[in-house]
Amino acid sequence: MKKNLLARRNLSVFYFLPLVSLLNLFLYHQPLWLYITSQTSTPGLGTWTALFSLLFMVNQLVLLSLSIVSIRLSQYFSYLTLLGNALALYFLEQFGVILDSDMMGNIFNTRAIEAVDFLSFTLLVYLLIYAIIPIALVSRFKPIAPRRFTLILHFFMWLLLGLGGIYSGSSGWLWIDQHAKQLGARLLPWSYVVNSARHQLSQRHEQQQLLADVTTQTSNNPLIVLVIGETARSANFSLYGYQRNTNPALSQRGAIALKGAVACTTYTTGSLKCILGHSPDTLFSTLYEPLPSYLQRHGVEVIWRTNNWGEPPIKVKQYQQASELRKLCSTLNCDGDAALLAGLNDRINAAQQDKLLFVLHQKGSHGPRYYQRYPKSFERFTPVCRSVELSSCDPQSLLNAYDNSLLYTDYLLGNLIDQLRTYSERPVLMMYLSDHGESLGEYGLYLHGTPYTVAPSFQKKIPFVLWMNQKFIDDHQLDLNSLKERTEHTQYQVFHSLLNAFGMESEIYDSSLDIFAKPSKN
To answer: Which of 68, 264, 512, 517 has the lowest CB atom count within 10 Å?
Structure first.
């Protein structure tokens, strides 16, 4: 008797598939229903009818299509999407993320060591309630499939029923169209399935196209360090007026904060394309030769040091990861981003070319474990949030942890400037900018990666900071007051500004994107 109770029960595929579709419809769409009911313009019956019909029909049609090929295929797809839905629901509800193609790109570019940061008891609860239990329920049944011809007939039957439901709710399509992006990001599993496919297709680049050669270049010997920050927002930089002194080191060293700087995307891989690219085409079309490769090809010695990832393919003199650099830190604390400064002076002195570019790619303030981005000695603002469930933290403790991480970045930049000051005989530039900003609970959002058109300014507005020695200022005849007064800056200015800094001219150079170009008299 006991054996019979535990045995799998045969169930016609025409009952099995609707069971899976109903589970999907009612178990995983709380964020969708909450979004709809939270709108000031409440949708009518037509909207609800159209959405229910669309969700159920699409699920049924996909499962029937897979069953026509193989019933096992539809089973395994059901199990995978139930697991995927549980994970998606966790991030939708706990962090307010939107699962568009950019966010899926973030996920695909997340490494295991970074994914560990999101492990929590709440995640295990979600997996139990929304994955393990539903999968156990569904797996109790063994779907029995009829002939393929019958499956095909049922496919068209559900197609007609679904279209009928959608047509009967046609009065609600205008409302659905107005909210399409927000609704689409909450339709599970199709938000992450479709947008995963969109992201992968967007990554199918042709071979990098070489940019136009440098036509002339000066014989100067600049030393330039480009620091690419992570998840720093200008709203929390005291250089931009934040009430807390999160930039004591930069302030004391006379760093210049460029006003109105914005990121071109809200995720790392996209923003790195912009920072290293010569035009907006580098983000949305063919992958052109990025700045490090371009400079290396034209006689600049380029060293890339990273405690992060996500850069496009680059060809440089030396590529060093933080784990490798820590071996140079026998007497220093080189945990975290401090490793990027290990042996810096020795490497500068060993350079074989006169023109030298260091790129330091930080881990910066990457969440959700902001408290792990700085040593204990930098925990100036307390108490701090030590949970990955950011919505459960006291807002002030979350802000404290984040601000401490910025304070540590400020310390490292100050340390870097002190080392660069020793090279007074050559023009020296330190340029720092973040890849994107961060949400810390404003409007119910956390982290970053929200689609750009609806992302809050906290995820777009970034710090963009310069430090130059006197020789660099004199060589370029810079008017620092004019530099400080400019009110708009973008990540695309890095490429053209550094071309000028290295004394290079090319047909791709755009003076309107050059921070150091002399203002037009017109």
So the answer is: 512
pLDDT digits (tens, 9 = 90+) for 311-343: 888 999 999 988 888 887 765 578 889 999 998
* pTM over the 0.85 mark: no
Q: How confident is the model at residue 5 (pLDDT cuts 50, 70, 90)?
A: very low
**Cα–Cα distance, 156 to 57 (Å, whole number):** 11
CATH class of 220-513: alpha beta
Q: Which amino acid is at 194?
A: V
Listed in sequence order, the residues at least 6 apart from 133 whose beta carbon sits closer than 8 Å to its beta carbon are none
Answer yes or no: is pLDDT of 379 > 60: yes
Q: Specify the amino acid at residue 502.
A: F
Tokens linked to 75:
């089973």
> 268 Cβ partners below 8 Å, 6+ apart?
106, 109, 230, 308, 310, 435, 436
Distance of CA 450 to the CA centre of its chain: 9
Residues 477 and 518 sit within 8 Å (Cβ to Cβ): yes
Spans of all domains in the chain: 2-202, 220-513
Dihedral angle, C-alpha 266, 204, 212, 262, nearest 10 °:
0
Residue 483 structure tokens: 């530099």
What does the alpha-carbon distance between residue 201 and residue 227 come to, in Å, rounded to a whole number? 30
Structure tokens at 281: 């085409």
Q: Looking at the DSSP assignment, which residues form a beta bridge with residue 9? A: 141
199-232 pLDDT per residue, tens? 666 665 556 789 999 988 888 899 999 999 999 9
Residue range 48-101, pLDDT digits in tens = 777 777 777 887 788 878 888 888 888 888 888 889 888 888 888 877 777 766
DSSP state of 209: B
From 322, 330, 326, select the one nearest 305 (Cα to Cα): 322
- Asked whether the CA dihedral 328, 334, 339, 342 is positive or negative, the reply is negative
